[in-house]
Amino acid sequence: MAKGRIDVLESFCKSCGLCVEACPVKVLRISDKINSKGYRPVEQYKEGCIACRMCATMCPDAAIQVYKIEENS
């Protein structure tokens, strides 16, 4: 299975939670820190991302970038 990771553009995240709900492997959550606009941005809090891009697809503010991690055989 593919592995991945996300980067969140924290200044764009409005804590709507759509990405958290869309994640099939449940590796995202709303963080405790507060961004410059007063929202709590989403974060990847554990391993297990499969780089499916569902979170980025659901994000209305394009605040998530997904990266596939290449595994060396």
Q: What does this protein look like?
A:
The chain has 73 residues and is an alpha+beta fold. It has helices at 18-22, 54-58, and strands at 3-8, 28-30, 42-44, 64-69. It has 2 helices and 4 strands; from the N terminus they run βαββαβ. The strands form 2 sheets. It has a two-stranded antiparallel ribbon.
Key descriptive features of the protein:
2 helices; Alpha-Beta Plaits; two-stranded antiparallel sheet; 73 residues; alpha+beta; elongated
Rg of Cα set: 12 Å
What level of helicity do the residues show?
Answer: 10-25%
Count of DSSP H/I helices: 2
Principal-axes shape call: elongated
Strand order of the largest sheet: 1-4
Described by strand count, sense and barrel closure, the largest sheet is: 2 strands, antiparallel
| CATH topology grouping | Alpha-Beta Plaits
Unreliable residue stretches: none
Query: What is the number of strand segments?
Result: 4
Quaternary structure of the protein: single chain
SSE order in H/E notation?
Answer: EHEEHE
What portion of the residues fall into strands of 2 or more residues?
15-25%
Estimated structural class: alpha+beta
Average pLDDT confidence is 94
CATH architecture: 2-Layer Sandwich
Q: Distance N terminus to C terminus?
A: 13 Å
How many domains make up the 3D coordinates? 1
CATH class: Alpha Beta
